[in-house]
Amino acid sequence: MLVSKEVFKNIRKIQIRTNKYVQDVLAGAYHSAFKGRGMEFEDVREYQPGDEVRSIDWNVTARMQTPFVKNFREERELTVILLVDLSASSLFGTTGKQKEAFIAEIGALLAFSAIKNNDKVGLILFTDKVERFLPPQKGLKHVLRVIRELLIFKPEGKKTDLSKALQFLIKIQKKRGVIFVISDFFSPSFKDELLFVSKKHDVIGVNVRDPQELTVPKMGLVQFKDLETHQTHLVDTSLKKVRKTIEEKNLKHIKEIQKQFENIGGGFINVQSGPSYMNTIKEFFKGRKQKI
């Protein structure tokens, strides 16, 4: 697919900015935060005092007439899947860029972190249906394609249905992986699907919000439009009570989503669109490193 000079320039900007951050700040943190979770059989050796009885290879022991144990090594290579919400609510933005631009940068940051660690990266773009799927692969060329899709793909759907995206993930990703769900989570219930995915995969929610979705400014009468349903509401933001109600509703929604991820043993990152988002992700990596 040919891309315009402007899109190519944007891809290069994201590549330089995020790759530099991976090199300078996240080097080592990703590796520590997402160690290989699988164990791969390597060989057998004679039993030594202190070895666990459950590691004994009874077939070899029977043949050799002396105890042998299985020796395993950590399966280092991971598969990282970026599950990215491209519904119409991502088109909102008050910090100079829309949320979709920050979503693309977050995806690039995670993808570069993965390939630097020699992991595979896959991409699922979704709205109220799965819009595009790039199977997991390694290498810079593949990651640049991931970034290109994040920047230029135009979805058909406007609404969000995370449950359908998770159902698709269950079908196509049989091997254990690390799943980053990047969204603002304005979706019907996906609790059951999230629980099912978490039984096999390491799942991290990345909640992307514009600052004015969390703190409503005092602007008088404002007509709010839901970008996904196109419904409009006239709101008097000059009233403190009105602003507080909106802010509390948004905060409650975020806490409910965070609790869902915590209940399944997953991770959760709250990201505000703006220059500080990279530091937020770095702190998450550091926190996971300390827990391992």
What report would you give on this structure?
This protein is α/β, with parallel strands linked by helices and 292 residues long. It folds into 2 domains: 5-33 and 76-291, Rossmann fold, CATH 3.40.50.410; 39-75, no CATH class. Helix content is 43%, strand content 24%. It is built from 10 helices and 10 strands. The strands form 3 sheets. The chain has a 6-stranded mixed β-sheet with strand order 5-4-3-6-7-10, sandwiched between helices. A two-stranded antiparallel ribbon has the order 1-2. A two-stranded antiparallel ribbon has the order 8-9.
Please summarize what this structure is.
The chain is α/β, with parallel strands linked by helices and 292 residues long. The protein has helices at 5-26, 29-33, 58-64, 99-116, 140-152, 162-172, 191-198, 211-214, 240-263, 277-291, and strands at residues 38-46, 68-75, 79-85, 120-126, 130-137, 178-183, 202-209, 221-225, 232-236, 267-272.
Any descriptors?
single chain, 292 residues, alpha/beta, Rossmann fold, two-stranded antiparallel sheet, elongated
Overall, the morphology is elongated
Strand elements, count:
10
Assembly annotation? single chain
Q: What's the gyration radius in Å?
A: 22 Å
Reported by name, the CATH topology of the largest domain is Rossmann fold
Q: pLDDT average, as an integer?
A: 84
Beta content comes to 15-25%
Give the number of domains: 2
Give the low-pLDDT segments. Answer: none
Helix content: 40-55%
- The top-level CATH class of the largest domain is Alpha Beta
Biggest sheet: strands, sense, closure? Answer: 6 strands, mixed
Question: How would you write the strand order of the largest sheet?
Answer: 5-4-3-6-7-10
- What's the name of the CATH homologous superfamily of the largest domain? von Willebrand factor, type A domain
Q: Helix count?
A: 10
User: How many angstroms does the end-to-end distance come to?
Assistant: 42 Å
CATH architecture assignment of the largest domain: 3-Layer(aba) Sandwich
Order of helices and strands: HHEHEEHEEHHEHEHEEHEH
Judged by helices, strands and strand pairing, the structural class is alpha/beta
